[in-house]
Specification:
The protein is 41% helix and 16% strand. It has 331 residues and is of the alpha/beta class.
Length: 331
């Protein structure tokens, strides 16, 4: 700044006013200073300006895993939405969902200087009393049940599962088996609870639930077991990758999809329409989840009213060739 001042023949204070857009600077002086900045390659120190203003234009994101489709696509949407608003994103993965690790992540993000934090809680916390988020930090939580303590944005997990199960029942299947995600997963538990409740409300038998780990391989192993169940004519898988494993296992066991067994997934991943057969699945609007998370923290940053509780992003069923009427398997 001192170099620019000397080159332009003005004071350092005038250079500071020009870089901060002060309207009181005479236009001819402004142009002269800007020309000097351009000639010398001067750029204002954004870090110093951020410290002075107390605004860093950065949103921190804490999440427990980068391995799941939901987390990756939500993170992508957060980054895109933040960029549209002129904000950067600082990512901090956490090895385990423990109080110490979460506290350490918040401390680290505080050191890195962020304006607010989005927490993507993919793992269901069995005892929320042991994992409490600092109340003084502006926060939006995604994919979790934080009650009314924080602003939460989540896919309508239960609504999507109900739609999938009702679709299969309306096709004439007597019941629907379920391949759930990991027992500790919040979204997996929400989907499993809705599956069970929908069958009970319809007065149908509830088969034993199977668990996978979100991977196609775990779906394949579960599919080999389900292929031995003579009364299994319909399966709702908690995500598309496990559904992909199911399709392979049924094919190897000689169980035709959808003639012998119908399969529905969850996520509507980009490749699900190219499975064999193309997969009927529940579409999640990850872009909307990410956008609403960013909008939520920006409202808090701007001191606007921040709603507590959960905002649910609707899902929709995408019907393809992996489901058919139960009668078709007797044809």
């Amino acid at each position: 700044m001192a170099d620019v001042a000397r080159h332009a023949g003005v004071s350092s204070q005038t250079v500071s006013r020009v870089s901060n857009g002060d309207a009181a600077v005479v236009e001819s002086t402004r142009r002269h200073v800007l020309a000097a900045m351009e000639e010398l390659g001067y750029r204002p120190n954004s870090a110093a300006r951020a410290l002075k203003r107390g605004e860093f234009r950065t949103i921190g994101v804490i999440l427990f895993t980068l391995s799941t489709t939901g987390n990756m696509r939500t993170l992508e949407a957060i980054a895109n939405s933040a960029a549209d608003e002129g904000y950067a994103v600082t990512l901090l993965p956490v090895a385990a969902p423990t109080q110490d690790d979460i506290r350490g992540a918040f401390t680290r993000l505080g050191e890195l200087a962020v304006d607010a934090i989005i927490v993507i809680m993919e793992v269901h916390l069995l005892d929320t009393a042991k994992v409490s988020l600092p109340p003084h930090i502006q926060i939006v939580v995604a994919d979790s049940d934080a009650g009314d303590r924080y602003s939460v944005v989540d896919t309508d997990q239960a609504g999507g599962a109900r739609t999938a199960v009702r679709h299969l029942l309306e096709l004439g299947h007597r019941s629907v088996w379920h391949l759930a995600g990991p027992a500790e997963s919040f979204s997996a538990q929400r989907r499993a609870d809705a599956w069970r409740a929908t069958l009970e409300e319809a007065g149908r038998e509830v088969p034993p639930v199977l668990h996978g780990d979100w991977s196609a391989e775990s779906g394949y192993r579960a599919g080999l077991a389900l292929a031995e169940e003579a009364d299994c004519s319909a399966v709702f898988a908690a995500n598309d990758q496990m559904a992909l494993g199911l399709l392979r296992a049924f094919h190897e066991a000689g169980r035709r999809v959808p003639e012998d067994v119908s399969v529905v997934g969850f996520d509507d991943t980009p490749g699900s329409g190219s499975f064999f057969p193309p997969l009927t699945t529940v579409h999640q609007d990850f872009a909307s989840v990410g956008r609403q998370c960013v909008e939520g923290v920006l409202r808090q940053i701007r001191n606007e009213e921040a709603e507590r509780g959960t905002t649910l992003v609707p899902t929709r069923l995408v019907v393809r060739e992996s489901t058919a009427a139960a009668a078709a398997r007797r044809g």
